[in-house]
Structure formats: C-alpha cells, structure tokens
Amino acid sequence: MAKRRGAQWLAALRTPLGAFSAALVLLVLAVAVLGPILWQDAASVIDTNAIGQAPSADHLVGTDELGRDIFHRVLVATRLSVVLALIAAAIGVVTGLVLGMLPAVLPRPLARLVTSAVNIAVAFPGLLLVLFFAVIFGVGKNGAVLAIGFALAPQFARLTQTLSASVAGRDFVSAARVAGVGRIRLLFRHILPNIGEPLAVNATLGAGGSLLAFSGLSFLGIGVQASDYDWGRLLNEGLNGIYVNPAAALAPGVAVVIAGLAFNLFGETVAGVIGVRARLPRLVHRPLQTAKVDDRPDSDDTVLAVENLEVAFPRSSGWTVPVRGVSFTVRAGEAIGVVGESGSGKSLTGLAVSRLIESPGSVTADRLDFAGTPVLTTPERELRTLLGTSLAMVFQDPMTSFNPTRRIGRQLAEVSEQHQGLSRAKAFERAVDRLRAVRIPAAGRRAKQYPHEFSGGMRQRAMIGMGLMGDPRLIIADEPTTALDVTVQRQLLRLLAQTRAERDTAIILISHDIAVVSQTCERILVMYAGRIVEDLPSAGPEMTPRHPYTRALLATTLDLDTDREAALAVIPGRPPEPDRMPEGCAFAARCPLATDQCRAEEPELVVVAPEHRVACWHPDEALSSAAGVVVAAGGAE
C-alpha cells in the first residue's frame, strides 16, 4: 500500500503540473528559510544617497524612501509572509474541523445551533468576515492571523460536516455503534480517517488563500505593523512611489502571486494523487391499527420481545411509516427468518431493534426489550455495553461493513478493548482467535490485512467473527448471503447454524429468499408493506402458509423439479409506497382472493393455530388454493 502510494507521488511529480508546483513550493520554502539569514543585513541598510532610486545594477528593483534595497526586503519578507499565512490556515483548519465535528458529539439542540451558525457564517463573503474579525481582534499581525483563521473556519467546517454525513451512514459506522463504540471514539477512529484526504487537499488550497488574505490586510494597514514587514506592507509602501518606480510595487506583488500559485498548484497535485473521496415541523403520526401481540408468552429464555414496533420518517405533509405495528418474540437458541420483497420493512425492523435508526427517524413501541432491558428508554451509556457484547449485526454489503482504512484484526479487537477491558495485544489475540473460529485461513496473517484484501465470503465471515468477539445472545443477519455464490452461501449459513448450536445464540435471518429461510430457520415472519402478515413455523410438514402472499412467495421459488419449459411464476403488481398506503389490506390490489372487505378494512394479525398467526380475512381459502400467483413469462419478483 505504501509502495503504491509512493509510486503515485513519483508519477504525479513527473507530470508538468506536479514538477512545476513542487519546484515552486520548494523555492518559496527555501527563500523563507534562507532569506533572513542571507539578506537581512542588505535589506536593513539605510542609504540616504540612494533614496527612491529606480532599478539598477546595484538595486535590481530599486530602493524605498529610506534607500533600502527593495529586492532584498522582498526576499526577507518571505519568511514572515509564509509563516503567518500557514499559521492562519492551521487555525482555520483546526477550528473548522472542531466546528464540523461538534454536531456529531453534542446533544441535538446544541448540534443544530452549531450547524446553523456555520451555515450563516458561510453565507457571508470571506472578506467581510476577515474585516469583522480584524475589528474584534485588533490591528497587528496577531489580530490578522486570528481574523483570517476564524474567517476560513466556517467553510472548512461546512466541508467537514458534509463529508462526515456521507460517511456516517455507512455500514461499518453502524457496526461500530452496535459494538458500543462511543461517539468521540467513533469520530476519530472511523469517520475522520475516511475523510482525511479531501480535508488535507482543501487545507493545502486554503494556505494559498490565507497568504493572499494576509497580504491584503497588511496592504490595508491592518496586518503587519512597523518595524516588521511582509509582502502586503511592502506593496503598500511601493504604491506611494508607483509613478516614479513601478517596480517597487511590482516586486512584492509578483512574490504574492508566485507563492499563492505554488500552494494552489501543489494542492491540485495532492488532489490528483490521493483523490477526493470524495429543524422539522412538529407532526402527528397517522393513526395505526394496533397489532395483536405475539401469542407466545414470555419465558426466562426470551432474548427479544417486540410489541407494536413502528418506524416513521417525517415529510412536509405528515409521516411516512415504513414499519407498522410489528410484534414478535425471539427466544434463546431460536432461529427466525424475516422475508419479504424489497421495501417491506425487513431491514428497518432489524435496525430499529439494534437502535440504529437516527433522527429524524422515529422509533416507537409498546415494548422493545432486549435481554430484559428496555431498549427505547434505557440511556445510551447504559445500553452501549449490553448491545456491544450481546447483540451482533451482520450487514448486507460486507465491503461497506468494515472501515476501509483500518486492518481487520484491529477492528475486531476494538470490541474487546471497549467492553472487556483487554489490552491492545490481548484484544488482538482474541480477534485472531475469532477469525480462526469462523474458518478464516491463516488467521494471524489475515488479521493484519485490510478489508479489500478479503474476498466477499471472507468479509462476511469476519463480520460474524466481530459479532463473536463478545458473547452475543442475538445475531441479526441482514441479507448476509446476497451477491455470494451458492457454495459460500451454504458455508455462511452453516457457520451461523454452528454458532447457534454451540453458544445457544438466537438468530434473526433477514432475506428475500423464502426457500433459504425455510431451510435454515424454525419460524418465518413474512412482512409486506411494513407489517407482519404471517408468522408461522417452517419445520417440515408443519409449514402450511395461510396468507396468499406467503404462498405466492413460495410459488416463485425454483428448485431442481421446476419445469424448465414453463414460464416463471411471478407476483403481479408492486408493493405500495410507504407514504401511499391504501385503505384495507395492503396486498388486496395484488390478491385474486380480495373482497370488498379486504379493500376497506385492514386485517389484524390473529392466531389461527399454535404458534401460527396470520393477517388475512380469508386464511382458509388461501390454505386450499394456490391463489396469489400468476404464471407469466419473466422472472420472479
């Protein structure tokens, strides 16, 4: 990785732009370092016999009103001009970074206040902000440094907020939250490393802007004061005699342009190498029909109890409710499958249970208990350790589930460091052991590799290994076999089954493939339009679906006995949009058994057999019919 990045730098420096920008930067820095050492005396000598002279062999750009050599003074002023500009840029970058990160760690009202203040500041022209802060901090180089730094901060803060928001929704950040990583550690270990490169590029470009701004303040008489001098002050002095000696003003102006060009071009070169990874109205929820609570009573081995779970998101005219009145329980060692088409609310249910739905999303429930602890009312600090050690989340996309800037072993070890108090070395040893437990070959070597060096199946295994770093009582696997070949799928499902058998761990397997779920899980929750429409046992002959949608899903699955000459079975139509939910049963428009009652009244989820619930007005007709499926040319939806 380091060798490849070094080769990229060499290649960039060989380009005309890279070579030219590097040469300019080195020239400016060399003059800044050597200027006062080599030419301080020549720049300070007062010669009353050479006052205001034009350019000559002795004085390349002439002399000032005291007979001092202007060329040497421009060279000596390089250090002060560059140093002050870099200090101002550093202040702006650090201040902007802090302001940009604060919303992620502050309580929401204060976060909104900081964000609003940054947005207001960004709306003002930069020069007005500089002058405003210059009045506050006073005349002089110290005041000018602070003024430019704080004027630069809002733009950098806005950039930091935007980049942070683009990373904060990634799966590996959610996985870190599930692991119990605190907000500050999450920010510095998982978010900032992934936005550091574009921030570095903009910091380099900001240095050139600071140089121009500082020279401008000194030119106006607000910046550097006598007896010190920088390019802006020399430019101001040169203008007094511009009609007699134009070179006196031209020399510092050229120096400002060259230095500013050097920083900006170098920023473009850096960008070419590393690239740029690159309050809501108070609304009222739509009244929902309360779902009938799971008929299975709680027992001592109940791991998760959910009653009337609802997930809602605000919009301008009301609330969108993609998860509506979901109720179920999960017991120790039990495997439950959650199936349904895309948009049915499967993943949102898993995220809500894991407390990963962020504002402005709203999660409500009559009851949401994990391991006997109420998830919605327990303070985050108290809940963090429980979720970090007893709940594991395996996300759909293994590539985005890991932080790409950190090695696999260190990401797994973080769980033990945070919640089990292990040292860095001991935690890493445990991480290697967990990788070995999930059948990662050469686990010691693999633990030192980055996520992109793992195959898709190995990344999913490593995700399960991360969940096993603690002692999970529940694993929520959200489409863990998507985009994997059938051999790897079978290995992962077998690994989950083995983990369940060895540790008595409960598993919620979220999938769109009802055939996989029926072969892996004891119970199936079928979701449609944000509701559980059927909860049934899946083992052997006891699997007798009573809802037309469940039977339709089963009919669209393929096996070795499927007639290859026949058209594929599909479910006609599309599921309704969450914000356009029809009256009555949401499946009525696609169901051939639908009646006027189905279109007018939404059925409750009721018990029709032991441990079997269904939300349908005609479950008996569905049981005796293959209704709900239309045979047509095309693929199964």
Task: Using brief descriptors, characterize the structure shown.
637 residues, alpha/beta, MetI-like fold, Rossmann fold, eight-stranded mixed beta sheet, 51% helix, disordered C terminus
Polypeptide structure, described:
By secondary structure, the protein is an alpha/beta fold. The protein folds into two domains: 2-274, MetI-like (MetI-like fold, Orthogonal Bundle); 302-405 and 450-631, Rossmann fold (3-Layer(aba) Sandwich), CATH 3.40.50.300. The chain has helices at 2-14, 16-44, 70-105, 108-123, 126-137, 141-168, 171-178, 183-220, 231-240, 247-274, 346-353, 380-390, 398-401, 408-419, 424-437, 443-446, 456-467, 486-503, 514-520, 548-555, 596-600, 619-623, and strands at 302-315, 318-331, 335-339, 362-364, 367-370, 373-374, 391-394, 474-478, 506-511, 523-528, 531-537, 569-570, 606-609, 612-614, 630-631. The strands form three sheets. An eight-stranded mixed sheet has the order 7-8-9-3-10-11-14-13, sandwiched between helices. Strands 1, 2, 4, 5 and 6 form a five-stranded antiparallel sheet that branches. A hairpin with a 2-residue loop joins strand 13 (606-609) and strand 14 (612-614). Helix 1 runs antiparallel to helix 10 (247-274), helix 3 packs antiparallel against helix 4 and helix 17 runs parallel beside helix 18 (486-503). It is elongated, with a radius of gyration of 33 Å.
